[in-house]
Amino acid sequence: MPPPTTNPSATPSPQPRAPRNPYLDVFANRRIAAMLLLGFASGLPLALSAGSLQAWLTVEGVDIATIGFFALAGLPYTFKFVWAPLVDRFEPPGLGRRRGWLVLTQIGLALACLVMSGLDPGRSVMAMGVCAVAIAFLSASQDVAFDAYRSDLLGDRERGAGAAVSVLGYRLAMLVSGGLALILADQWLGWPGTYRLMAALFALMAVVSAFSPRVAPAQGVASDVRRELVGFVSMLVAGGVVWFALRALPWGALEADRFGRLAVLSFCLLASFAAALKAARWAGFPSFIAPWDAFFSRDRAVALLALIVLYKLGDAFAGTLSTAFLIRGAGFSQTEVGAVNKVLGLGATIVGALAGGAWLARHPLYTALMVFGVLQAVSNLGYWLLSVAPKNFTLMAAAIGLENLCGGMGTAAFVAFLMALTDRRFSAAQFALLSALAAVGRVYVGPAAGVMVEALGWPTFFMWTVVAALPGLLLLRWLRRTIDTLSRPAGSSEETT
Question: Rounded to 5, what percent of the chain is helix, strand, coil?
Answer without folding.
Answer: 80, 0, 20
